[in-house]
Amino acid sequence: MCSCASQLGELKQKFHPYLDDTYDVAVYGEYRDEYNGILKLFETHSNNDFRGDYFRAKLEMPENYSISGF
Predict the structure, then answer these.
(1) Contact call for residues 11 and 34 (beta carbons, < 8 A)
(2) pTM for the full predicted model
(3) Which comes out higher in pLDDT, residue 48 or 60?
(4) Hey, is 2 helix, strand or coil?
(5) Residue 57, CB half-sphere, CA atoms under 13 Å: how many?
(6) Residue 65 DSSP code
(7) How far out from the chain centre does Cα 7 lie?
(8) How far is CA 2 from the centre of its chain?
(9) Are the C-beta atoms of residues 29 and 36 closer than 8 Å to each other?
(10) Which residues 6+ apart lie within 8 Å of 1 measured at CB?
(11) What would you report as the CA-atom Rg of the chain, rounded to the nearest whole angstrom?
């Protein structure tokens, strides 16, 4: 689990500069594929975790994500 977290942390540092830019499908696809590749290496996660991780990140980092609705 520690190795998985370490690799995901490195990935987060790589895509962090793109948070302020406009959305780019190609960049998103590249990092999504790398994220899923990391998850496949470890039994502790499934590919379905990406959506949950995204929503959790939105709640924990409101300065980087706009939340609308209820």
Answers:
(1) yes
(2) 0.54
(3) 60
(4) helix
(5) 12
(6) S
(7) 11
(8) 17
(9) no
(10) 42, 44
(11) 13
Structure tokens at 3: 């190795």
Instruction: Please name the amino acid found at residue 50.
Output: F
The structure tokens listed for 16 are: 């962090």
pLDDT in tens, 26-52: 888 899 999 989 888 877 655 566 677
SS (H, E, C) 3-64: HHHHHHHHHHHHHHHHHHCCCCHHHHHHHHHHHHHHHHHCCCCCCCHHHHHHHHHHHHCCCC
Assess contact for 23 and 65: CB atoms under 8 A: no
Q: 60: Cβ–Cβ under 8 A, 6 or more apart, which residues? A: none
State how far the Cα of 43 lies from the Cα of 49, in Å rounded to an integer.
Answer: 12
Cα distance between residue 34 and residue 30, in whole Å: 6
